[in-house]
């Protein structure tokens, strides 16, 4: 069986950056992605616009040209896809890694299609796959979704949008503009301060004029087929409801990390252990890259500030190879 220098788990922007850097360093590598190229970005809302400008989303100094300063989802998909194809990166798609075990200095990576052996592994799986659940009755009804794609579907429907961050606010505004009757349920006293600066005034104005109803300091008690029950400062209330968009954030796959043996902090942040200078975890030759490094603090790491992880990791791997051959 072939022994790879590096197996990269996750084919998002940072996984792709790691693949580019491994190729430049002359290392044998494979990127394993459970979905399509940049699968998380593909599952973003169709009309999503990034907070970051295009140059901050660039990897390996490959120019990212967008129509506006801040690119949209479809432009990002085109950019990262072209990088993969034009650089002939070694990537396998629609292949899910189920386990990673280290024995006798080698990692054995088992997917639902193949088995790999490697001296180094990089986990770059992000956090978009597991929603933060509300754990309330009715959350598993078909009318409830933790992901939002296209506002047209919700036209002329009564829609409850739960959350105060960018994903929830974008969904509330888009659905309202496509003719939905939108109720925004926010756990805190205001719209999130990290909402995109050009969007926040828009949602506040729509709330103030009454176009979008808002329930501050409120939580969901129960979801029923034709209504949603809220706990509010005024007591329990019921809203007529057709659909619920529970956009309450997402989390890394902590169970997968723990199964591998990566140490996580005991507090609510669940921060994984890694060396900030090399990105190596408590397991020798096992690295973390990208937004997964933030644990539950999913707002701390983005493409623009984690793209440097690829260079840091590959430099460390190459330095180990040189030390071993010295």
Quick synopsis:
With 326 residues, this protein is α/β, with parallel strands linked by helices. It has helices at 13-24, 39-42, 73-86, 166-177, 200-208, 254-260, 303-306, 309-325, and strands at residues 3-4, 6-9, 29-32, 91-92, 97-103, 106-111, 115-118, 121-123, 130-131, 144-145, 158-162, 181-185, 213-215, 219-223, 227-232, 235-240, 243-246, 250-251, 286-288.
Task: Characterize the structure shown.
The chain has eight helices and 19 strands. The protein folds into two domains: 3-130 and 250-325, FAD/NAD(P)-binding domain (3-Layer(bba) Sandwich); 133-246, FAD/NAD(P)-binding domain (3-Layer(bba) Sandwich), CATH 3.50.50. Helix 1 (13-24) packs parallel to helix 8. A hairpin with a 3-residue loop joins strand 14 (219-223) and strand 15 (227-232). It has 326 residues and is an alpha/beta fold. The mean pLDDT is 94. The longest helix has 17 residues, at 309-325.
SSE order and pairing:
Blueprint: E1 3-4, E2 6-9, H1 13-24, E3 29-32, H2 39-42, H3 73-86, E4 91-92, E5 97-103, E6 106-111, E7 115-118, E8 121-123, E9 130-131, E10 144-145, E11 158-162, H4 166-177, E12 181-185, H5 200-208, E13 213-215, E14 219-223, E15 227-232, E16 235-240, E17 243-246, E18 250-251, H6 254-260, E19 286-288, H7 303-306, H8 309-325
Parallel strand pairs: 1-7, 2-3, 2-8, 3-4, 8-19, 10-17, 11-12, 11-17, 12-13
Antiparallel strand pairs: 5-6, 6-7, 9-18, 14-15, 15-16
């Amino acid at each position: 069986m072939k022994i790879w220098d590096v197996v990269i788990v996750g084919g998002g922007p940072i996984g792709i950056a790691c693949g580019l850097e491994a190729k430049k360093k002359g290392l044998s590598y494979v990127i394993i992605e459970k979905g399509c190229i940049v699968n998380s970005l593909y599952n973003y809302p169709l009309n999503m616009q990034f907070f970051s400008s295009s140059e901050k989303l660039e990897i390996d100094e490959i120019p990212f040209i967008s129509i506006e300063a801040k690119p949209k989802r479809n432009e990002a998909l085109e950019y990262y896809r072209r990088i993969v194809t034009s650089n002939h990166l070694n990537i396998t798609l629609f292949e899910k890694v189920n386990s990673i075990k280290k024995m006798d200095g080698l990692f054995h990576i088992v997917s639902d299609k193949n088995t790999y052996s490697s001296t180094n592994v990089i986990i770059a799986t992000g956090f978009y796959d597991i929603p933060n659940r509300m754990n309330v009755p009715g959350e598993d009804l078909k009318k409830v979704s933790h992901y939002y794609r296209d506002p047209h579907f919700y036209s002329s429907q009564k829609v409850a949008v739960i959350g105060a961050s960018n994903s929830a606010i974008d969904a509330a505004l888009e659905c309202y503009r496509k003719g939905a009757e939108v109720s925004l349920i926010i756990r805190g006293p205001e719209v999130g301060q990290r909402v995109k600066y050009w969007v926040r005034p828009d949602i506040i104005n729509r709330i103030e004029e009454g176009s979008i109803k808002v329930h501050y300091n409120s939580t969901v008690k129960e979801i029923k087929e034709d209504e949603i029950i809220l706990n509010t400062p005024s007591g329990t209330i019921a809203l007529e409801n057709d659909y619920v968009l529970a956009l309450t954030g997402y989390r890394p796959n902590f169970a997968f990390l723990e199964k591998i043996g990566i140490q996580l902090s005991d507090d609510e942040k669940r921060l994984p252990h890694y060396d900030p200078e090399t990105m190596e975890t408590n397991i020798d030759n096992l690295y973390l890259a990208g937004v997964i490094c933030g644990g539950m603090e999913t707002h701390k790491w983005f493409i623009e500030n984690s793209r440097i992880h690829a260079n840091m990791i590959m430099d460390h791997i190459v330095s180990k190879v040189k030390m071993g051959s010295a």
